[in-house]
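User: Predict the complex with 2-acetamido-2-deoxy-beta-D-glucopyranose.
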Amino acid sequence: MESWLCICFIVLFIDEVSLEKVEGSVGNSAVLPCRYDGQLQDLTAHWRYNDIKNVYDIQAGKESAKEQHPDYTSRTLVFSHEFVKGNFSLKLVNLLLTDEGTYCCYVIDINYQQCTYLSVKETPRTTGTRSEEKAERMNHGLDIKANEIVALLIPLLSVIIPLFI
Ligand SMILES: *[C@@H]1O[C@H](CO)[C@@H](O)[C@H](O)[C@H]1NC(C)=O
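Assistant: Here is the predicted structure with 2-acetamido-2-deoxy-beta-D-glucopyranose placed in the model:
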């Protein structure tokens, strides 16, 4: 029973951790990574938002926004000179709060996929009060702590679990 619980716990954590996170703020831009290690020519890659909306298509090594969802009109940028290096990263500009969600890049020919969770925050006002700034810094500190704990927990659990099984 105990070991079963532990395994569940680990699977949940790994799932959380393996989804890369990118943070952006309203009006600014974010680069969503998609990088496959290898020399690649004329591949087809599809960028999708929450598995539904067409964000961008790269067709046989060429940029194509033909089928793009109107929400993304004039807000996407790919780096075509990077395609041969297996880099299909996408830049999303002029971010909106509604852009938050999971973006996946599917490289069809080689069956590769990379997903990233984009979170979009309100752009902090430049004239924020001292206490607001302080609260924000503290929040940030807590975020970092949580990440550190997760990073430590996984190797630790992988050592402990075999003892239970
Ligand atoms: C992919 O290309 C973009 C744009 O040139 C660059 O910012 C990014 O670092 C590249 N990613 C990798 C993993 O090389």
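Helices lie at 2-18, 130-164.
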